[in-house]
Design brief:
10 helices, about 80% helix, about 0% strand, single chain, about 210 residues, mainly alpha
Length: about 210
Amino acid sequence: ICGRPALAARRFEELAEFSEAHDLTLFRARAFSHLADAMLEDAADPREVLSLTERARRLAQEHRHGISIQGLVAIWAEGEALLRMGRFAEAEERLLQAFTQSEELVWTPIAIGLSLARLYAFAGRSQQLRVLADRTSHCASLVQRAITQAEATCFRAVAGLLEGADPRAAFEILDRVDQLHHEGASWGFLARSCALLHLSARVLLGDV
């Protein structure tokens, strides 16, 4: 959360080793899931991330772990890794699964939504972006609620850009939400993920 992925990765590696030594499968699966997340934050090879998420999923299945935040993180990390590898269809399937699970857990879908928004923006799928915006805006979770609602507005703005709308109005929306992040309205890693989406939209339209 505070933007130190290398340190986070070391701590989760230590947790994985400790959990294996003491046969704590739930904590081991948690370590693999969050280690995958930290590696994505540090721009690691997505193939290594997929290996970790597979180990987390296998542990959860073998030991009948219930639906949890750590399982949600693993599914999102797998989808994000697939997205970075250009495997869009597989990525979308996993990310939509993660979004549904976030709704079941009443947890913020913002990280998942940002991954899906990038996928749809890259593929020029404006209608899916609008559907994603509506689904995100109806999220019941109170976790990161303000920025979740704000990003839903950004998804609609990016959809408009794909459909040929005036970019100035869209960029004003992106700027306002960037300011919310700058003022500390979200976790640090979310601010970076949001900035990536916003910057991608500007690059596509030659605004940078």
